Amino acid sequence: MAQQNPEKLEEKLAFMINDELYSRYVTALLQGDVRLCAEIVTHLLKENTETTTIYTELFQKSLYRVGELWEMNRVSVAVEHLATAITERMLANVYPALLSNVSPNGRKALICCSVNEYHQIGARMVADIMETRGWDVSFLGANTPVNDMLLMIQEKQSEILGLSVSIYFNMASLHRTIEIVRASFPGLNIFVGGQGFRWGGTDISKKFSNIEYVPSIQTLDTIIAGR
Amino acid sequence: MTADKHLLHVAGQYLYENAPLLYLLFNPAGQVVDGNKYSRCLIRNDLEALRVEDIFLAFAEPVDIAFLRTHPEKAEMLSIATSAGPPETLLCHFIPAEENTLVLGSIDGNETRRLRNEMLVLNNELNGLTRELQKRNHQLAELNKLKNQFLGMASHDLRSPVSAVLNYSEILIDETGYALSPKHLGFLKIIHSSTDLMRRLIDNFLSISLIESGRFQLNIEQVDIRRPVERSMAVQQIIAGKRRIAIRLKSSDENSLLQIDEYKIEQVLNNLISNAIEHSQPDSEVTVMISATDEEVLVKVTDSGPGIAEEEKEKIFSPYEKGRFRKAAGSRSTGLGLAISKKIIEAHRGKIWVENRPGRGAQFCFILPIDGVSHEETL
């Protein structure tokens, strides 16, 4: 049997989430078809698609699309919530596969959403991606009380705190959270991100020290690789 | 038509055709005489066939339209049987319309919003917990893998020196025992019996680490079950004899040929028979029974010990669970024998269990299918 050209193989892997597959997934997501979504994800896992690719090219891209449709009043809040719930379910399908390929680097991070922020899926994806890079990540999820956050930073000796904001109106709450964390941990590296920053606030590093705005998962990857 | 009348007409038409509100008109006899599109969709199309008791679920007392229409301003919380799914709870007003009664109902929007928010929070929490659980499971699996590797390596490396101590202490007892004082001979026997226990422990650790690491293989052959049973009985007879315990075989004449790994099944029998001996009082009997059908072979090992407490029946097949094993003979248990036996029997697509006979002894049973497992399945 002829040996497969490695370049060709790479090309095949890169195009595994093609337009047709993505389109089928988005349609299933909007229709609330959990079974079909799970079938597509299982297929990708069987084909050894990189988990980061599944996260960014399927989950993130499709949720952004659902958000756009909602902003255009083409889908309801209920459909958006259903799509989020299905995506979280899919993350649970991928997560064990993601963990099986991890080489721990001994570094620790804490990822969560500040008070009143109930959209946790972006933060969850960031936490998972960091784990693929070997980080030991504690994920506290949505609406994390500041005191819990402080206790966890202390207990886990986290060297990075990641905070996600999906709704712009929660920006003030984020700033208050950062002020409190800064008072207790002046040297802690903090990065922030999320859809809330589409409407402003990306200049947050001018207001606080040691804070970085991370516009995308790809940028996050570059930042943590450089640390 | 005045502007006000026109507006009322349009609003009424909207209520009748498009609004997601319940609109039902009942006659004085409690029969539906009209309903809007939403009600027909929610309940059923031919509403006119229904009476008030067909529509509203009355758990405590029936819905009394005649009374409710006397308080039209009051919203009554009522549940409606729907055509496609669970009942729907609506806030309903009963409004007199001459001799008829108009029922207007809507979903409680505040409640829906509160529920949606609660579900979002709960779903977030559930997802967070699932992630944490998956992470912990992964960590435990990794630790278990490490434990098995360590157990396998340590047991393998310990086996040779421990075997040397066991064999040489036996030679010393046999060849020089007569020349030693009873006290020193006693010391030597303790060395020998302790080393024997140590080797059994090591063998069990090796077996369990192989089983748990998935490197457990069966060498399947066609064997008469009586062969490993008789061999195991002969080996155990020596220990049984010292405690004046008789081992009896009761076997039917049916064909007992089956596809098994003979030596692994013998390991199971050794475990069960030695346990039975160790839990039995001196001057008693241990029975091994074999019966066969066209499809399976059943083996039962019965002792006359104290039996097994109900709450320990499941636990005793888990690794390192000793439960019942305060043995009558005073010997120590590794807590692995039954766990290994269970894995071996299940690998043969069989089943092992214990029948609870507290105070009258225990009966360990296993069933093996005649056709067994193929070589391919065991790899």
Question: Explain this structure to me?
Answer:
The complex is a heterodimer of chains A (227) and B (379). Chain A is an alpha/beta fold and 227 residues long. Chain A folds into 2 domains: 6-98, Methionine synthase domain (Methyltransferase, Methionine Synthase (B12-binding Domains), Chain A, domain 1, Orthogonal Bundle); 108-225, Cobalamin-binding domain (Rossmann fold, 3-Layer(aba) Sandwich). Chain A is built from 9 helices and 5 strands. Chain A has a 5-stranded parallel β-sheet with strand order 2-1-3-4-5, sandwiched between helices. Chain A starts with 5 loop residues before the first helix and ends with a helix. The relative contact order of chain A is 0.10. The mean pLDDT of chain B is 87. Chain B starts with a helix and ends with a helix. By secondary structure, chain B is α+β, with helices and mostly antiparallel strands. Chain B is built from 10 helices and 12 strands. Chain B has helices at residues 3-17, 37-42, 52-55, 65-68, 109-176, 182-212, 226-242, 262-279, 337-347, 375-378; strands at residues 22-26, 32-35, 76-80, 88-97, 100-106, 221-224, 246-251, 257-260, 285-292, 296-302, 351-355, 363-369. Chain B has 3 domains: 3-107, Beta-Lactamase, CATH 3.30.450; 135-212, Helix Hairpins (Orthogonal Bundle), CATH 1.10.287; 221-369, Heat Shock Protein 90. Chain B has a 5-stranded antiparallel β-sheet. The longest helix of chain B has 68 residues, at 109-176. Chains A and B meet through helix 5 and strand 2 of A and helix 5 of B.
Quick structural gist:
The complex is a heterodimer of chains A (227) and B (379). Chain A is an alpha/beta fold and 227 residues long.
Write the SSE topology.
The complex is a heterodimer of chains A (227) and B (379).
Chain A: H1 6-14, H2 19-31, H3 34-46, H4 51-71, H5 77-100, E1 108-113, H6 121-132, E2 136-141, H7 146-156, E3 160-164, H8 171-184, E4 189-193, E5 211-213, H9 217-226
Parallel strand pairs in A: 1-2, 1-3, 3-4, 4-5
Chain B: H1 3-17, E1 22-26, E2 32-35, H2 37-42, H3 52-55, H4 65-68, E3 76-80, E4 88-97, E5 100-106, H5 109-176, H6 182-212, E6 221-224, H7 226-242, E7 246-251, E8 257-260, H8 262-279, E9 285-292, E10 296-302, H9 337-347, E11 351-355, E12 363-369, H10 375-378
